[in-house]
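Page 37, continued from 36.
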């Protein structure tokens, strides 16, 4: 069967129901982190680096990644460690693109490990294929060295590399790069896009073996088909109300709020079901925007809003007394919480509908990027003591 049916919110398999700028018990996220500053949060983290081949033949891979981002984030929300909901961060690299610097091994760090899921979505939708020369060892090495991997106990640190050329190309020995990853407790998963030659298959397979991860062969050209449900339209309507509860502040606030709207549009351009997945992510605490939204900032630290200059405040808060500001923000917070609760209830019904449809249609042949990630996440989660 050439159609891939995507499981959506609260999927039973990991990475199928999920960030991307946490993830129906809620994930608490630190304010958006777009750089490699040293992490300070004490709680557990799940960190995922996606290394995507953007050479000429990989358009299908990029489309699958766009289609699966919010599934991935929603799935991660199901994981708990000793009852605690971990923080989730995602990083994105592209490699094998001839439009990139030759001296940099045709590699670009698109985003650092970040909880800013809108940023991850924006960057993912900006990727284009061209060329190329695919150096797997080099991009793995860059991700290991350049990203700020958390060193807390029992954190889940994962690299996923997807491509379609021999694994041993380029100036960096992939064995050494993967050895460095393992020394930091990072699991390396390899996803070969359609390769059937023995030398290709064995190199990618060996990379996963050395990285204590999983090896997959997928058809990156398969089109993702979503199951539409009777609840998708109502979830989208609730999203309009949800967006109205955001109060942007500071110099970057208006830009970030526009980015939020643009990523809604990007998700909807894939399908209405994919848009519903994004809205479900937005209803969870993992979708935290304390860096530009006054409501999230106030929730994290009620006093922080007082430190802003009047011109940096949201228009509705300018010239207001402390008591008036509190009342306005708390009303928005109450409204947002009520909307998120409605979305959460609908998401449960939505998943029940999807599960029923899938059971009636029988087992499906699923070998896309998301399915590979779902399966590998569940295995590593079990090994490290994470539970759904």
């Amino acid at each position: 069967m050439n159609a891939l049916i995507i499981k959506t919110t609260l999927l039973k398999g990991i990475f199928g129901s999920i960030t991307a700028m946490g993830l129906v018990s809620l994930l608490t996220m630190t304010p958006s982190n777009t750089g490699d500053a040293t992490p300070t949060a004490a709680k557990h983290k799940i960190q995922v680096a996606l290394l995507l081949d953007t050479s000429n033949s990989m358009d299908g891979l990029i489309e699958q990644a766009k289609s699966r981002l919010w599934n991935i984030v929603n799935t991660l929300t199901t994981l708990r460690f000793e009852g605690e909901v971990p923080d989730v961060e995602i990083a994105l690299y592209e490699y094998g693109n001839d439009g990139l610097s030759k001296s940099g091994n045709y590699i670009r760090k698109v985003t650092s490990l970040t909880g800013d899921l809108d940023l991850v979505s924006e960057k993912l939708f900006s990727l284009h294929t061209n060329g190329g020369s695919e150096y797997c060892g080099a991009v793995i090495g860059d991700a290991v060295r350049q990203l700020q991997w958390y060193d807390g106990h029992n954190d889940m640190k994962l690299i996923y590399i997807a491509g379609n050329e021999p694994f041993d190309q380029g100036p960096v020995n992939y064995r050494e790069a993967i050895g460095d990853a393992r020394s930091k407790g990072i699991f390396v998963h390899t996803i070969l896009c359609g390769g059937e030659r023995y030398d290709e298959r064995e190199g990618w397979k060996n990379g996963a073996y050395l990285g204590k991860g999983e090896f997959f062969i997928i058809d990156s050209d398969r089109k993702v088909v979503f199951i539409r449900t009777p609840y998708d339209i109502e979830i989208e309507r609730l999203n309009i109300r949800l967006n109205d509860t955001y109060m942007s502040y500071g110099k970057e606030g208006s830009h970030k709020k526009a980015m939020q709207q643009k990523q809604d549009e990007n998700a909807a351009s894939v399908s209405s079901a994919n848009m519903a997945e994004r809205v479900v992510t937005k209803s969870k605490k993992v979708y935290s925007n304390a860096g530009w939204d006054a409501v999230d900032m106030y929730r994290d630290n009620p006093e922080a809003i007082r430190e802003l200059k009047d011109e940096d405040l949201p228009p509705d808060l300018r010239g207001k007394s402390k008591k008036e500001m509190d009342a306005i923000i708390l009303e928005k917070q109450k409204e947002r919480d009520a909307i998120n609760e409605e979305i959460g209830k609908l998401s449960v019904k939505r998943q029940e509908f999807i599960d029923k449809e899938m059971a009636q249609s029988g087992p499906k042949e699923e070998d896309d990027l998301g399915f590979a990630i779902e399966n590998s996440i569940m295995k590593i989660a079990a090994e490290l003591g994470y539970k759904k």
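The longest strand covers residues 45-53. Flag for discussion at group meeting. Residues 322-361 form the longest helix (40 residues).
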